[in-house]
Structures are given as C-alpha cells and as structure tokens.
Specification:
The protein has about 290 residues and is of the alpha+beta class. Strands 1-6-7-5 form a 4-stranded antiparallel beta sheet, with no helix packed on it. Strands 2-3-4-8 form a 4-stranded antiparallel beta sheet, covered by helices on one side. The chain has a two-stranded antiparallel sheet with strand order 9-10. The structure holds zinc ion. Pfam families: Fapy_DNA_glyco, H2TH, zf-FPG_IleRS.
Amino acid sequence: MPELPEVESLTHFLRERAVGRTILGVDVVAFQALKTFDPPVTALGGLTVTGVSRHGKFLDLDCDGVHLVIHLARAGWLRWREDLSGAKPVRPGKGPLAVRVRLAPDDEGLAPGFELTEAGTQKRLAVYVTKNPDDVPGVAALGPDPLDESFTVDALKRIVGGNRTQIKGLLRDQKIIAGIGNAYSDEVLHAAKMSPFKIAATLTDAQIADLHEAIVATLREAVERAHGLAAKDLKAEKKSGLRVHNRTGQPCDVCGDTIREVSFADSSLQYCPTCQTGGKPLADRRLSRLLK
Ligand SMILES: [Zn+2]
C-alpha cells in the first residue's frame, strides 16, 4: 500500500510530467472507483493540469480548478505511460486497470498519460472529481501531516494525551495523523524502540519526544530514498528500505533478534522483541481468545 513517502514521490513525479499539459480524456474502466458525479468526469477533458499536491495518502491533480483526487488504497498503483496514442480503448472487465488519464500530445507526437491499477479482488481504489478537495470525506477528516512544520513535539503531545488506544492503532488512524499506514507505523515503532501495544496516554514526555523523532526521521528518510524514482520503481524501493515490516523470521539489523509477527486489527504487525518489548514476544490476542 502506498503511504506518505510513496504518495509524496508520486506527487513530485506527476508534477514534473503532467503540469502544463492538457487532459484529452479520463477513461473510468472500473466504475466503482469513481465516487462523485458532479462535476462529471468528462468535465476534465480540455482542462490543463495546473498543480499536483498531496493530502495524507491522497493525490490531488488541480486541473484549472477542477480537482481529480486519487486514493490508491491497499492494492492500487499509478503507472506512467510515455505514449498512449496507440493504446486500445479499454473495456470494463477483469483486468487491474481502473482509470486511464490521457494527456495531449507533445511536440514529438507522443501522447503520455497515466493509469491507475488495482490488483486483487477487493476494489478500494477511489477517485473523486470535485471543485474542492475538502469535499472528499477522507481528505476533510485528515489529521495533521507529519512532514508539516506545525507537527511539533508539543503537537504530538496533545494528540497522545488522554488517548487510550494502542500506539500502533493511533499512528495509522488518518484522522489523528495523516499519511502513515501499516508499514510505516511498524517502522516508526521499531525506530522509537516502542511496543506497538503501548497505550498512547501512558507515554512519558521523553517517549513522546522519541516517537516524534522516529516519525519524522522515518518518513523523511523514506521520502529521500524515493525521491526522483520512477513510479514503477517505488514499490521495490519501499520494500528494500523496511527494517521490520513484512520481515517476519528475518534478523533485526539493529540487534540480530528474530523479527516476529502478531495479529492486529484487520491485518498483522511486525516488530523486534529485543528492540521493542524487552525481549518478550507479544501475545496474539486473537489466538489466545480462541483458546479460552
Ligand atoms: Zn532489534
């Protein structure tokens, strides 16, 4: 799933390639992906891409004041195409292609564009056409962006203060902090040497400062690694930069302990017992509930 660093990189990538270009048309192949009807998606045809920005994990193409807002969800991705002039018209069907955005040809006659694809059977990828990105419910509800300078230690202290949820859940709640998902919350907690099950409100001032440092450093490093990469190379880069996420059974590169996995909410999380939980493996609550 693309999270803040990958979406930030896609934002730069699209800004360099799409800004200033006219949209020829937007083909919606997976009808369920389009979440709005006014303005219609056809309204984008003939408009010029004037800006590309990011809101949490949402991509926002400003096209002369009409915004195409994209949420790639768990299995979605963006694929840049250098020339779509010979591309076949797309029919709704089984393939991964959800949306195709065609741009006007350049001086060399190449008509580039990009495609939004979604793997798997769970279709969550979402696009919105709107005059105001804040009308998108997921955008309107976003918490502060951790790369914004207003995200200070004090801001994090206000967020965790009195919050009785586990820190892992808090970190990936988009309404609390924008842009962090399952992978980077594992990475942040490993960097902060903190148990994912720790209750937010119990953090000391020193732990909040450590967590803040871990959030900002982890995301900034990932953004730097991803910077300048082509969209197609981002997935591999994300995977290679992860220290605990999806690395169950492998040695921790900080202490050498074996990375473990435990179920959490609708998926699972990975962590290093020595670095994060005093050497003690976390109990799998789902499993222990089943055994009772
Ligand atoms: Zn470790």
